Amino acid sequence: MARNIGSHYTVHRVLGRGSAGTVWLGDGPDGPVAIKLLREDLAADRDLAERFAHERHALLGLEHPNIVGVRDLIIADSGDTPDGQEVALVMDLVRGPDLRRHLERERRLAPREAVAITAAVANGLAVAHAAGIVHRDVKPENILLDTPEGGRVALLTDFGVAKLIDEPRHGGKGGVVGTPDYLAPEIVEGLPPRAAVDIYALVTVLYELLAGFTPFGGGHPGAVLRRQVTEKAAELPGIPRELWELIQQCLAKAPASRLRAAELASRLRELLPSLEGLPPLDIGDPEEDAAPEPVEAEEPIAALAAAGGGGGGAGRVAVPLVRGTAPDSERETHTRMRVPDAEELAGGAHGTARTIRTAGERRAGSARNAAAARRRRRLAVTAAALVCAAALGGWLLFSGGDSSDGGLGEPAGGPPRADVQLSQPA
Ligand SMILES: Nc1ncnc2c1ncn2[C@@H]1O[C@H](COP(=O)(O)OP(=O)(O)OP(=O)(O)O)[C@@H](O)[C@H]1O
Fold it and tell me: pTM of whole model > 0.95?
């Protein structure tokens, strides 16, 4: 049934759900639009709504063919609850799937396609960075593929949302907000996110498009964070040398060593002719590997939740962006964490660097983005996610270790950090 949003828009049906809200197909004065309605508990937070309004100018001014345009920001009283309000972001409607779905279908992309998508997104980032806007949550879910007149255009969406949700309410230091697989090491180390974090995340996406899995993902989110800081990405077999060098440069631990967005875009575009006709890389399919180990894949997560320990689960833990309810989305998404200290980073949780092998060769390790593996784990993960939030204690503090959850959820709880076993068992 159609529902009015503000005085100019109507929504008809759900297009997708994320941890911060639901995206609807809608109509506005200029035709069809996509409308992201913030979750009720977030919308009820007056501070957050104010921050939205404050960012209005920057978000509405961001115009580029590779950025999903924001057309309007609506903060309106909701008829549903006496003092409730609706907060909505009106965006250009994108017809195609998001990159996560495309990748799940294809498993791995041919190098030319992967590089062309990445170059397009880098173009969009260059414009945002020039305007002083850092995305902070670049990942396949936030890259939409439009299909105008048979062509295909990659567009980056969700600008500013992570920042709005992350901003500490009481002036305290924010925790880590983001999706562990794509988090730049400097964020893990507690430094303020600058443009280079988007480059790191985007090139992580490029690696994932080529390999079918991210360079440092898999297992306990703490282990993923530790790898982001300490490990080197494994080279993908058969990857063209120049492309690999570019990837390595942009996955540098030192932000200053990474390319800027405009340069990344142009270097990637230069590579395109040489990649013409190359098939997807011949890398073992993680799904095949994941099949024989369902018990190992599920048990550590459940056990972790029950025991409150820091064991190494094989899946990515689905944790809502903010505390409160379970995530709207079924998809694995943000984790909000306290910044780990140096000792934790050195000791680390379970998990070692992945061994990359060609197809046919067996690989010990997790199947990061294997849809089947995720489906198998989803029940355990979803059920365990909220328990995990408490059980992981200091390591996964939703409130960022202070009151900086913006009052959006319940008070921080869970055992203190000392209860969490982060060291490698003997
Ligand atoms: N402008 C748009 N046009 C068409 N569909 C969209 C648009 N924006 C988002 N969607 C759809 O809605 C889904 C949910 O988007 P949303 O940004 O809320 O969540 P997410 O990015 O998947 O997850 P999270 O917000 O938790 O990181 C997207 O995956 C996409 O399928």
Answer: no
